[in-house]
Amino acid sequence: MINIKNYWRLAPSGLSASFSPFSNDLLSAPSEMLRRVQPGEGVAFAAWDEEELVGNVSALGVCLDKCDEGMRMDWREVQIVLKPLPAGRTHWRSKVLFGFADSVIQRYGLADLFAERFADLDQLAFSARKPMTGIARRLPTIATPGFVYLLRSEYGFKIGKTISMKSRTRLFEVKLPFRFSVEHFAYFDNYTEAERALHDHFRSQRLEGKWFDLKPTDIEHIKSLGRPGKPEEMRA
Question: How far apart are CA 101 and CA 131, in angstroms?
């Protein structure tokens, strides 16, 4: 299983005004980024909001390849808000590129966020060869272990997945503007396939996105699958 070891923040201010992660195949990166960021590492494309004191992430990317002319990235669109501690705001204000410390990676849940957006990470081919040639070769999918969870709210039930219930629970508390409770979570050897199977099974009851209108029998069915989660796997 491929794991992203290093995560970086890239500021839009360091690139041309016309740059868009979703329309540019080749990122004409700053020289510092070309030197420091390696294939297989993660990049958060994020603008700093001085008024709110937060970083607004509009894309998560993984470096696939690089050459003298730039870097080839795989970008995924997101809308994520990261709130640095006072000591970290200087980096956001003054640096176009900086690496996230291990403690910050854990606090933001970056590994979890990237794992959710790049469920196909094991299928991507990474190379540092020069020059870049063609499209990345597809590799066989390797199952990624993790949790599938069931959230209950007045708006329905969410069937989602996460590598870490601890970091996901922290994100729930800051991202969801309504009351919720974790109805259930379970461990699967291939959490992406488990989530996909449940979404397909309940597709006729889908409300929006990952939210479903479930009956008590549906909930019991979900609870019968996988290895039930342990309380210590959710506690921070």
Answer: 31
Query: Rg (Cα) of the chain, in Å, rounded?
Result: 19
Banded pLDDT at 174 (limits 50, 70, 90): low
| Same domain as 83, residue 35 | yes
Report the length, in residues, of the chain: 236
Cα separation, 8 vs 34, whole angstroms: 12
Domain count, the chain: 2
Residue 230: HSE in the Cβ half-sphere, 13 Å Cα cutoff: 2
Range of the domain at 97: 7-123
Alpha-carbon distance 155 to 84, whole Å? 31
Query: How many whole angstroms separate alpha carbon 108 and alpha carbon 84?
Result: 9
Task: Tell me the average pLDDT across 172-193.
Answer: 81
Instruction: Give the contacts of 229 (CB within 8 A, at least 6 positions apart).
Output: 147, 149, 165, 184, 185, 186, 187
